C-alpha cells in the first residue's frame, strides 16, 4: 500500500476495503511548513505502515494530527506519531479520556464481548489489529475546538456531528478543492445501530459546495462532486 495524490496538496493512503477489517484510510495534506495527517491509523502496526509509506513517497512529516472523530479505527495509531499536535473536537476529548482509562488487552476484549455480544465484530477486529499492548496508548486531542478551527497551513476543521459520532469533523482543503468527510454521514456503529438506521445523505447534501471537487470518506473511494450529488439526489 502507498500514498497517492488525489488533488493539489492532498495525498491518500487507502484503508482495507474488507469491512470486517475495520481499517480506515488516512489523508495527508503535504506542506513544507509541516503536514497535516488526517486520522492516525487503526493500530500502532497500521500507523507504522502508513509512516513507512509516507517516507517512501518523500512526503513531509506531519506537524498536526487531526481526528475526524474518536472511534478506534481512526485514533489507535496515534501513539506512533511522535511530536505531533493532536487536534479534535472538544466532545471527543472526554470520550477518548474515558477510552484511555480502559485496561485494553486481549483478555479485556474477550470479557467485553461476553458481556455484550453485539461488540464482537468491532472487538474481534481490534484484537487482530493490535499484536502487542506493551506500548499501546489511546491519546486524546491536545488541541480542541467547538465549531471551527483553522490550522496555519490553510486547512479548516468544521464540526458537523451526526448519528455516527458526536464529534464528527470534516477537514477542508480549499486550495486543493478537497473535503475529507471521515465517517460523518455513516449510520451509528454496528453495536448501536437500529434496523432503520442508514446513511445521513441529508448531511452530505448540506456539505456539497461548488468550491470543492472531491469528497472523501474514510471507508470508500473518493467521489467527485458530481458523483456525490448523484448519490444524494438519487436516494
TrEMBL record:
InterPro entries: Metallo-B-lactamas, NDM-1-like, RibonucZ/Hydroxyglut_hydro. Pfam families: Lactamase_B. Residues 23-219 form the Metallo-beta-lactamase domain. Transmembrane segments: none annotated. PANTHER family: ACYL-COENZYME A THIOESTERASE MBLAC2, METALLO-BETA-LACTAMASE DOMAIN-CONTAINING. This is MBL fold metallo-hydrolase.
